[in-house]
Specification:
alpha/beta; glycosidase; EC 3.2.1.52; Glyco_hydro_3_N_sf; 18 strands; membrane; 42% helix; 8-stranded parallel sheet
């Protein structure tokens, strides 16, 4: 009996011990799982804890927060395997954009490799305009975008030589001076360089000398329809741009048709055309149709409202984009300091250089916001002249210090705020260069504009068929001298034979060694960079909605 009780007691004791061991193991397992859960929670918290510095750090790897794909490396097959098919696909000329709404991510593909990663993650919205600049200083480039739905500023930071990080935010206003981020974009530089254009044919290394010289010429055409001379300029001489005047543009329908025909003809070439027009507002308005008048710069200067000036520029850009143009020879940055000036007048924002610089720069930015190239003019300043350079060669008897105190101020302000193209005036400055007008003067273009004002963009001449040039110089010879002085593009706005003469003169100068091909390459590089930056294409446009454009003008003028 005692033995049975002892055995029973032993069994119970063993059972109790086993239960305790099980409970301890269970608690240890729960503790371990709890630690793992805490670590996972911490990891997820770290992933979602997005700040400015983390975004910049990830961009160095070609990434954005919480996305496994790498710009310039991840193949489309890997994306499809991980995320499946996208919700929306947009096909462009040589690239494709896809959208993954569930991940709040858009991806750009080129040659089936991701080159652009865009994140619309809501946690990015807590990063504001001032946060970005405080963390990393001023961006390498500032761009603007505006359409019916958006009015945005784009802060572009170069991340080494491999990537660009773009912060896209609502444009700061007085009501909202420190907006939050809308989205970010990390772009692979080597792949992005070919945006909007074929990456093989646009390389300088594979371009013929004729193709390079053609890019240096901005030609005018005759007539209202595509003719043999226009086809020759595109197919034979491969000009880089075409300027249009009122005599080319009868009405909106004819204008769109002509531009579309020109773009179709140019499809045989590797580089899209610059398609330009003088659309300043006021008396210098070339676009056809029943468009409402946009105020002249003089009126904008009287109001002295930077926001209004920006909106006017946006209207000008919107008009050009609707017709199919991509370049506006505007705004005028000349200071109207001479009441006897016969050519500037109300085209200037006024006689105060600070106001001219402020308002002119805002008009420039407004034009750029519509993805239209803005050409600021007429460097180094056509305001203090008493003759019209269309008819004679004006003289401005000022030294460099005198120009710096007045004429150069608006140009310096525009250059510091992202000017892409500067037009050189046909004016003689005897105290700086007694022999050559500004368009042919190395002291003006290279020494003053490039070196002193640190301008690295595209330099274009005023029309070389103006009498300021043709009455004093051979146009072909003057064009060669202009390139030697530092110009990138020669504007020959009238006469097919003059365009051909300029082309042949430049080619002969290269063949003789007067101009090196390396010097030509410098200009072609800047021109290609400009075309890439604005993603120019040969895409056609449909009919122009004049009433829609006029409604935009009404809305802006009402705010005056």
């Amino acid at each position: 009996m005692v033995k049975k009780i002892s055995i029973s007691f032993l069994i119970v004791l063993i059972a109790i011990v086993m239960v305790k061991v099980f409970i301890n193991e269970t608690n240890q397992t729960n503790d371990t799982n709890s630690e793992i859960d805490e670590e996972q929670d911490q990891t997820e918290s770290d992933d979602n804890n997005v700040d400015v510095n983390k975004v910049f750090a990830l961009s160095e790897q070609g990434r954005v927060p919480n996305v496994p794909f790498i710009a310039g490396k991840t193949a489309i097959q890997e994306v499809n395997e991980m995320w499946g098919q996208p919700g929306e696909i947009t096909n462009l000329k040589n690239k494709r954009y896809v959208s993954y709404p569930g991940h709040r991510i858009d991806l750009g593909f080129q040659n089936d490799v991701v080159f652009d990663v865009r994140s619309f993650a809501p946690e990015l919205q807590i990063i504001h305009f001032d946060d970005i600049k405080k963390a990393k200083g001023e961006p390498d480039e500032v761009r603007y975008y505006k359409d019916d739905s958006y009015d945005q500023i784009i802060l572009v930071y170069d991340i080494g030589s491999s990537y660009q990080l773009k912060w896209i935010l609502p444009r700061p206003t007085e009501e909202n001076p420190n907006p939050g981020t809308d989205h970010i974009s990390v772009v692979a530089q080597m792949m992005n360089d070919g945006e909007g254009m074929d990456t093989d044919g646009e390389s300088i290394e594979v371009m013929s000398l004729d193709e390079k010289i053609g890019q240096l010429i901005f030609a005018g055409i005759s007539g209202e329809a595509m003719g043999a001379e226009t086809k020759s300029l595109i197919n034979t001489y491969k000009v880089g741009g075409i300027i249009f005047y009122k005599e080319n543009l009868v009405n909106p329908k004819q204008t769109v048709k002509l531009l579309n025909q020109i773009k179709t003809t140019n499809e045989n070439n590797d580089l899209p055309l610059l398609l330009g027009i003088d659309q300043e507002g006021g008396q210098i308005s070339r676009l056809p149709g029943d468009l409402m008048e946009i105020p002249a710069n003089e009126r904008i200067g009287e109001l002295n409202n930077a926001q209004y000036s920006y909106e006017i520029g946006s209207l000008l850009g919107e008009q050009l984009r609707a017709f199919g143009f991509n370049l506006d020879f505007a705004p005028v940055l000349d200071v109207n300091s001479n009441p006897d000036n016969p050519v500037i007048g109300d085209r200037s924002f006024g006689s105060n250089p600070e106001i001219v610089g402020k308002l002119g720069t805002q008009t420039m930015k407004g034009i750029q916001s519509q993805h239209i190239i803005s050409v600021v003019k007429h460097f180094p300043g056509h305001g203090d002249t008493s003759v019209d350079s269309h008819l004679q060669l004006p003289r401005v008897n000022k030294s460099i210090p005198e120009l710096k105190s007045l004429e150069l101020k608006p140009f310096e302000h525009a250059i510091n705020n992202g000017a892409d193209v500067v037009m050189i005036a046909h004016i003689l400055l005897p105290k700086i260069d007694s022999e050559n007008p500004a368009t042919m003067s190395k002291r003006v273009i290279t020494d003053m504009l490039r070196k002193q004002l640190d301008f690295n963009g595209v330099v274009i001449t005023d029309d070389m068929t103006m009498k300021a040039i043709t009455d004093n110089f051979d146009i072909a010879r003057a064009s060669v001298e202009s390139i030697k002085a530092g110009s990138d593009i020669i504007l020959v706005a009238h006469d097919y034979n003059k365009v051909v003469a300029v082309f042949e003169a430049i080619k002969s100068a290269v063949k003789s060694g007067e101009l090196t091909e390396e010097r030509i390459d410098e200009s072609v590089s800047r021109i290609i960079a400009l075309k890439r930056n604005y993603e120019l294409t040969n895409d056609k446009v449909n009919a122009v909605n004049i009433e829609k454009l006029n409604q935009s003008i009404r809305n802006t003028l009402q705010a005056e």
